[in-house]
Automatic annotation (TrEMBL):
It comes from Mytilus edulis. One of its GO terms (biological process) is regulation of apoptotic process. It comes from the Eukaryota. Pfam families: CARD. This is Death domain-containing protein. SUPFAM superfamilies: DEATH domain (SSF47986). CDD domains: CARD, Death. PANTHER family: DEATH DOMAIN-CONTAINING PROTEIN CRADD.
Length: 616
């Protein structure tokens, strides 16, 4: 721990199990939370490729570090050309170690620890942090000063004053809070004076001027090198709500002006410009061709199709045809640079997956309706042309697309209510009986331990399958106590002959066992009407089920759950298992009619088509 300043919670608990600490062990969770609250321990934040937080494994403990910074980061990266600096100067000759350690710990809770040449920049009295992809932060202790460096990837002239000001404010307030804590802990009389002052450096990074002097001076404040340090001071002290530079602002430095603007900077510029201004700028930069491409496209695709939102199938078919224009397409469709970069990182070297993710991300945002017309215009604007899109949608039925839209919109409008308010076990029974979900679907849904996650998984299936899954789902809501939600979701569909026939296309060569369809069509009847014990015993005797299967069936919390477990197994068995199940039913006169009903259940081409959707 003295080398890397990291510990796992379990290791700390193990230390507390020693005799000296036994008294605090019962309160270990509270004490650990207090250590975090007091900035003595800090979480190590980690993220996956999608930007989602990963479970916390390690914690930083800066106060345990003894290793000093032995990297060349300060000399190689914190250069005068790329760095601005300030110092919090304390009144004594040295700073008590506890204070900067707590400040470093607080920094680790706010920003991500930086790695440099394969090493984490965390040492005794020193920490390097990543603010974003362009800005890094360094906090280090030298004598009675806590130095703060803000480093830009390319040039200090490109440092965003809002970022510098927010970083300074965060550290100032944190130091103020820590100082007040220590004053209160030693029963010092409360003082309005802080134990530190703020000083700002010139470009040499080793010459500092006090804030009091800077504030008192009006236009200029020269350091001992003859440099007007006011410029750096303004970077650290951006006025709130200030939208324009001061009259005496020198503008960007020559070094900054010589840099090629990044995609992020171009995006920031574009969102703050009127369309006319961007048009004039494009002409001024010699981009007549691009301006000409921005004209409204005259489409040969019918309006019925153009005004619809592209379905999953359209996106899947279109993605491989787009090629190496992921970034251009994403920007054209309104995605942020950060979103596109995240997609490219997530789907590394898989162009089709990148294109698909860009299209799905665009389609989720309904600020502007994400229609095929918008997509066609985007393709034309980036020089791709609309031919590939035209090929993909040429056989698409507009009624089907509109049905998808209606389903998606209705579910989106009621999504929170559905996810938070409903219990789906009986609704799943209903949907199983009507063949719109399979036994595998049910397993996939119910493997989530939380009800809201199960509900989300079911909604994903309903959106993907559309009709008849949607109507059956709505009927299930109505039948099992959620009539108000069902009424809000209800809509009338009139599938075209084309879409109806498409459902049975290819079924002549699709061989699905009829006995399974018959069994599933009677799913609800079986789970509500039978007592499973004798039936399971018969199936175990006939080696259709094992003893362990019987135990798993009995693990259900109530008779219906036990019967669901039984049906889940039967739907995975062969025809012999089905026949033995019917024999078991017929052995009991109470279930003879049910056995006869199952055996004579009619299976239609529509049934087969519906179940076929579940298995695609």
């Amino acid at each position: 721990m003295s080398e890397n300043g990291m510990i796992q919670k379990e290791d700390l608990y193990q230390i507390w199990e020693q005799e000296e600490f036994r008294q605090i062990l019962p309160f270990k969770e509270y004490i650990f939370d207090m250590l975090i609250h007091l900035d003595i321990v800090s979480e190590q934040r980690r993220y996956d490729t999608t930007g989602s937080r990963l479970p916390i494994e390690n914690f930083f403990v800066p106060c345990m570090l003894t290793q000093r910074n032995n990297t060349d980061y300060l000399t190689q990266e914190c250069t005068p050309e790329r760095t601005v600096s300030l110092a919090f100067v304390f009144k004594g000759t040295i700073i008590p170690p506890a204070l900067p350690n707590r400040l470093i710990c607080a920094c680790l809770s706010m920003w991500t620890l930086k790695e440099y040449q394969g090493r984490k920049l965390l040492f005794s009295g020193f920490v390097g942090l990543s603010f974003d992809k362009e800005h890094d932060i360094v906090v280090c202790v030298e004598g009675n000063k806590i130095l703060l460096y803000l480093v830009h990837k390319r040039s200090k002239g490109l440092i965003i004053p809002d970022i510098a000001t927010s970083v300074r404010d965060c550290l100032f307030v944190t130091l103020e809070r820590i100082s007040e804590f220590y004053q209160s802990s030693i029963h010092c009389k409360a003082s309005s004076k802080l134990p530190f002052l703020t000083e700002y450096s010139c470009s040499k990074l080793n010459c500092f001027t006090s804030e009091n002097k800077l504030v008192s001076e009006t236009e200029e404040c020269l350091c001992k090198h003859g440099e007007n340090i006011k410029n750096n001071w303004r970077t650290w002290n951006k006025k709130k709500e200030q939208k324009q530079c001061d009259a005496n602002c020198p503008g960007l430095s020559e070094d900054a002006l010589s840099q090629i603007p990044s995609n992020t900077e171009l995006l920031r510029l574009s969102v703050n410009c009127e369309t006319r201004m961007l048009h004039d700028l494009a002409l001024h930069l010699g981009m007549e061709e691009m301006v000409r491409q921005r004209k409204q496209v005259k489409s040969s695709i019918s309006d019925d199709i153009l005004d619809c939102i592209p379905s999953d199938e359209i996106v899947d078919r279109l993605a491989p045809l787009i090629g190496k224009i992921v970034f251009q397409l994403g920007i054209e469709l309104g995605l942020s640079v950060e979103e596109i970069e995240s997609i490219k990182e997530k789907c590394d070297r898989d162009l089709t997956a990148q294109n698909k993710e860009v299209l799905f991300t665009w389609r989720k945002d309904r600020t502007v309706k994400p229609t095929i017309r918008v997509l066609e215009q985007a393709f034309v604007n980036i020089g791709k042309g609309a031919r590939c899109l035209k090929e993909v949608v040429k056989d698409v039925d507009p009624n089907t697309l509109k049905a998808v839209e209606i389903v998606t919109d209705r579910i989106r409008e009621n999504e929170n209510r559905i996810i938070q308010d409903i219990q789906i076990s009986q609704i799943l029974d209903h949907m199983m009986t009507h063949l719109v979900i399979s036994a595998d679907d049910r397993r996939d849904i119910e493997h989530y331990p939380r009800q809201d996650d199960q509900n989300k998984a079911l909604l994903d299936i309903v959106i993907k399958r559309r009709e008849p899954a949607y109507s059956v789902f709505v009927d299930g809501l109505r039948n099992y106590g959620y009539e108000d939600i069902a009424n809000d979701l209800k809509c009338d569909f009139s599938p075209s002959p084309t879409s109806a026939s498409a459902g049975t296309k290819g079924l002549s060569v699709w061989n699905f066992p009829l006995y399974k369809v018959r069994l599933q069509k009677n799913y609800l009847k079986v789970i509500t009407d039978i007592l499973h014990e004798n039936i399971v015993d018969h199936l175990i005797t006939r080696e259709v089920l094992s003893v362990d299967d019987g135990k798993k069936i009995d693990s259900g919390k109530n008779p219906q759950e036990k019967n669901r477990n039984l049906m889940d197994m039967l739907l995975r068995k062969n025809e012999q298992g089905f026949n033995e199940f019917l024999k078991a039913l017929k052995k009991d006169s109470i279930y003879a009619d049910l056995a006869d009903q199952i055996e004579k259940t009619e299976v239609t081409s529509t049934d087969m088509a519906t179940l076929h959707k579940c298995l695609k």
